[in-house]
Amino acid sequence: MxxxxxxxxxxxxxxxxxxxxxxxxxIRDGFISVMPIIIVSSIFLLVSAVPNVWGFYWPAxxxxxxxxxxxxxxxxxxxxxxxxxxxxxCDAQNRDLPKNNQIxxxxxxxxxxxxxxxxxxxxxxxxxxxxxxxxxxxxxxGSKGLLxxxxxxxxxxxxxxxxxxxxITIKMPEQVPPNISQTFKDIIPFGVCLVxxxxxxxxxxxxxxFCFAQGVIQVFQPLFSAxxxxxxxxxxxxxxxxxxxxxxxxxxxxxxxxxxxLISNLELNMAMYQAGEHATAVxxxxxxxxxxxxxxxxxxxxxxxxxxxxxxxxxxxxVGRASAVPVCFGVNEPFxxxxxxxxxxxxxxxxxFAPIANIWxxxxxxxVLGMNGFMFSLPWTTPAxxxxxxxxxxxxxxxLLIPALLIVDFLIYFPFFKVxxxxxxxxxxxxxxxEVAQRAAQKQAAMNAAFQGKTDTASVATGAVAQxxxxxxxxxxxxxxxxxxxxxxxxxxxxxxxxxxxxxxSSSTTxxxxxxxxxxxxxxxxxxxQGGGTSGLLANALAKAARxxxxxxxxxxxxxxxxxxxxxxxxxxxxxxxxxxxxxxxKADGERMGVACCVTRGKQYIDLTRDGEASLAFxxxxxxx
Length: 625
Known about the structure:
The structure is a single chain. The protein has 25 helices and 6 strands. It has 625 residues and is mainly alpha-helical. The chain has a 4-stranded parallel β-sheet with strand order 4-3-5-6, with helices on both faces. The protein has a two-stranded antiparallel ribbon with strand order 1-2. α22 links the parallel β3 and β4. α5 runs antiparallel to α6. The radius of gyration is 29 Å and the shape is globular. The protein starts with a helix and ends with a helix.
């Protein structure tokens, strides 16, 4: 086990480089940007289709009204992804360009969108009551066109960077207003993009007889089918958990490669269900959010409650109860770093195999018992049991699947939980004995001093030895936790300790009123994580502590990748530990914008979310006030 973890640890720089890859990041961030479309459109789909499970069908005219909202949102998600992916890819390209010669992301978004329409839509025309009508077929403008959308976004960004970097643009005199100059600056790269996509589309259709988007689907369909099998699902989600176990955010590496399948399979299931067929696709976004990651990566919902209510260890009970509410909503970083689960050899096996068992059980329900696959998407923060029931359209089998998953996760985690609980109880007993010995030695020294009227040298020595032994035991315990914490962060950037932060704050920010954090008045702090969930914990802790001290400190939380537009409005950006691999890019953005940036370690971040005073001190230290 130790050798395996050490081997994986050696590969962390490579995994972090993959997570930071600008192409994969653009896909991930572009995909996240269109998730509101998918979720909101699913609400109309839920209202339309769920009653069918129980034998109720809306009148045709009502169903058409409901489905119009779905078709006009989900039906163009490919168009939207072409624009959002191009925007995020443009942000990455601009990081390599001078500040005074940046790519116009709006122009890039428009060019990518037009390129996508050229490569994915067919012209249609018909006559209605003697009136000639023409339009575009939208068969590949939705989830089927996502792969084409990503390709268009990358091609557009590369073309724009080539021309902007080399100043191959139309230059206007200095007297011309900047917005007019920018318009002319975009003409050449925009024109080249248009001609490129138009020419490519013309050639492709003449050779193959169908549009490029259809060709992409045909090429990747075998891979999607393989990924939907037992082995493919195990590889995908076993790898995702494995990366997280060594402190690398697994979804950042795996999800971009399967994002198109996650959404297209969701729509495919609905199409099969509406056609009266068995919806057999397993690999979908809600399955990943609520089955594989039930309670967060590693399927930690059950183990967190085991910590909270079954553990004999005081520390484990405290961690479990403090993390239970976030874990219920899929935010499990407080538990991953607080337990810790990350880089904890005891939990290696269940952390990897509980998610795999969950997805295999779900596939069994679909393939063997005839349950329809997931058809509806909900926010990833929906509690997992509710997300499963709603995502499966309230099918009767869904209410059998939920307890089956919970029971299996309990059985997988329980033996490892008992081993860890015994270890922690032994550590706590040892620490308690050292504390008792220390108190006894101190009491004896005090009695001797009172009896003799002075401190006896031998008593002092005895007390010192006992105190040193207790200190060594406590230090050993802290060192073990800190070592695990530093490894889990996957980050070599030094971060200030809470004690240092407190000392800095108390010595430099106290005003005449005695408020130690007065200098934080009017400051703005942004906290970033992968999905915007964990970052909210620290942002809320800072806001609460600031109110208690009467400080006007503005805090905000967001997901990394959605921060560039708002980042200049803040004085400090704090990066959560699971996004530590992006710190170099964040630091480069901060230097361009004049914004201070820092990254936190795993347990340090969790401690800050639970201690408002320490979080204020940390911010004060990072700002140097």
